[in-house]
Amino acid sequence: MPRGLDTRNPYTPDMGARPPFLAGRETELRHFKEMIGQLDAGGTQKHLILTGLRGVGKTVLLNEFESDCDAAGWPGETRELAQGSQIAHVIAKAARKALMEMSAKKRAGDAVRRGLGALRAFTMTVGDIAFRFDVEALEGVADSGDLAEDMRDLLVEVGAAAQANGSGFALILDEMQHLAKSDLEALIVGLYRAKQKNLPVALVGGGLPLLPELTGEAKSYAERGFEFRKIGALDDEAAAAALEEPARGQGVNWQPKAVERVVHLTEGYPYFLQEYGRAAWKIGDGSAVTRQDVAAAEPIALEYLDGNFFSQRVGKLPSAERRYLSAIAALGDGPQRSGEVAGALGKDAQDVSVVRDRLIKASLLYSPRRGEIDFTVPLCADYLRRHPYLPSLEILDEIREERL
Questions:
Q1: Fold classified for 26-230
Q2: pTM of the predicted model, to two decimals?
Q3: How many Cβ atoms sit within 10 Å of the Cβ of residue 18?
Q4: Of these four, 96, 119, 121, 334, which has the most CB atoms within 10 Å of its CB?
């Protein structure tokens, strides 16, 4: 009987789901615990932002930080931002949840009540936020109508309540690149003031590689209060462990050649490792995942990825955007020069700048260096070469010759 029919599949290629074995992220996991411990002890710590491409496990790590907060008695919940998310609404909901948890513990009644009063003033000023309150709004606190100033007041009051409660306040924000510049600026101002007062307020955020640039543009001093950590593909050893350890827990081993092939196909990206691992597990039987299992699983995994991962991101784009992405892929892997992409389309860079900017705004592309462009989705170039949207690119040979 095939192994997949009578044994639990240990691989979890689901959005944000924690893999059975979280390989290669020991440094980040240790940093989370140190961050909470440092703030609990009255010390200070830079806020942490994890950046990386899609599918590297940023959301999984943010959820781990949430679990660490729970274990430490800190109110905290991961909140995913979307295009158009308003930071005032996101922070207000997080603050309300935290203050209500503190109130239930009845350790810091006056401070929590003051925090709720500040929150009520904040919501009345912002509008469009409907909470039930049993406290009056604080006058002169978080009610100026200036988002940055009111955010500063609110985070200070919530941080003070947390300190009096013997805990902290954690903001865990995913997809931070979706924040408008003014919202990001207001958040930075609020966090900066809480840090000046040595309050236990911690931000751990996640986003695409363009996030450090956006943060610097929002507030020039942001770099002094944030630590940016790039989360990338796993090295070969960690990638192998991500495949082998979950299977070993069920008495199944991976043959070295099978591991080697999957690591090669996925380039060590965690999401793809889980997808190929799940497909290979379903194919085989017995006590080993073999190279033959992987060979049979390859077209299955690839078809699923093409139909459910890649096509959901690029398959329904307008033709101009599809052509631009296909031109990047046709030029090769890794960052490409914007001018060469335009040239491959037979246009000047200025002619396609609007399309390029739309794709950056849609979080499909980012600029790793000035004048360069690359995908935010790993292995997307391979997908586009399998499903090209360009009739021909005769100019490619000329571009390649120029590079040589």
A1: Rossmann fold (3.40.50)
A2: 0.87
A3: 15
A4: 119
